[in-house]
Amino acid sequence: MSRILLGVSGGIAAYKALELIRLATAAGHAVRVVQSPASRRFVGEASFAALTGAPVLVSEFERDPARGAFPGQEQPAREPLSHLELVANADIYLIAPASANTIAKLAAGIADNLLGSCALAATCPLVVAPAMNNHMYEHPATRANLATLRERGVHVIEPDSGRLASEGEQGIGRLAEPARLLAACEAVLAGAVGTEAASGQDWQGLNVLVTAGGTREPIDSVRFLGNSSSGRMGLALAGAARARGAAVTLVAANVALPPPDGVVCRQVVTAAELKTACEEEFPGCDVLLMAAAVADFAPAAPADGKIKKADRQLLELRLEPTADVLAGLAASRREGQTVVGFAAEHGEGAVDGAREKLLAKQLDAVVVNDISRTDIGFDVDANEVTILGTRGERSDIERWDVPRASKARVADAILDVIGRLRDSG
Length: 425
Ligand code: CTP
Hints:
The chain has helices spanning 14-26, 45-52, 82-89, 100-108, 114-121, 134-138, 140-151, 178-197, 232-243, 271-281, 325-331, 350-360, 407-424, and strands at 3-8, 30-35, 92-98, 126-130, 155-156, 160-163, 170-174, 207-213, 217-218, 224-225, 247-253, 264-268, 287-290, 297-299, 319-321, 338-345, 365-370, 382-390, 397-406. The chain is α/β, with parallel strands linked by helices. Helix 3 crosses helix 5 (114-121).
């Protein structure tokens, strides 16, 4: 679980910060909020305080009843300086929405309110999510300010395009959706958390291949058969492995989220493309983490153009099985390579089903997800998994249960287990 300091600046999108807090706390994170004075015109402190379960601060000069502690954290005995204590306790500082004015002040290092002084005092990763009118976002001043922040290592979450707040306005500038904000923070945290957890950079010198997302199999030139995998778990694994010092290659199948910093990314669409990319990358890797949801079947003869509905006659789609990429790679592995599969299983019998996959595909470990649950797994920021692993002897399968946590934490737990298996294998 991480401690997220959320800075809310003035803008209509401030209401989305409430939903972000709901998602973040549901994923187990502790959140504290600092508001700019202008943001209170849009959403008041009471709403943020109720959702975070912690006091909200606006000015450096007001007392913090929680003394800079996050929910679940012990309060210090003395009365600290709120902006210094809050950022010292935070794992990440996210400013969302970040108005054009706040971005300009951050770029200039101006600290005329608590939100700004927290940014100057922060040693944790700083993430900024702009939200404003499209002309303001595209103004050269805002572009230059964002470029300055990026150069300084600030993570910028690009706004979305679409309908803006003022009537009839369309364009870029909408605050990224709360789920995307949280996923981006977790991807950053996967790096930061991993670095902390593995201070010895225990994966340095290892080449890690991660697959993420879900493949799409074309039916015609515009339609496809796909699945609901967002790629979050794979991205968290890639970020965590990178943070431990590994050289990471990510094969991403239709992943909308950005890859973690420092990871080499290959984009693929279909199961066949994923197979080719993996076959090229696998010989050079030490650990394969096969988190992608790969189609088991693909249309046998995708149409060249767009299929017309014509007379609304029955349309039959013939599917042919795709190659099992993971089984193929596992069968060709050399000594010293660790092959990890991910099994999406439904309800009771999930672990037994995964055990069969481990044996059938000759894996070193398999990470099991129960896809009958809606609170974890596909397109959700939390996960809860069981890991089955072997230390060389496949008749002797060990089991680890990782309780519900953010995907960043679960990724770290998976890497811990894989590390142990490799050390003793
Ligand atoms: N996998 C693969 N190639 C496929 C299908 C799956 O490499 N064509 C990999 C997945 O990336 C995952 C593992 O196999 O790591 C398990 O995938 P899953 O779909 O759960 O199992 P399947 O073997 O496809 O069996 P089933 O769908 O019958 O449960």
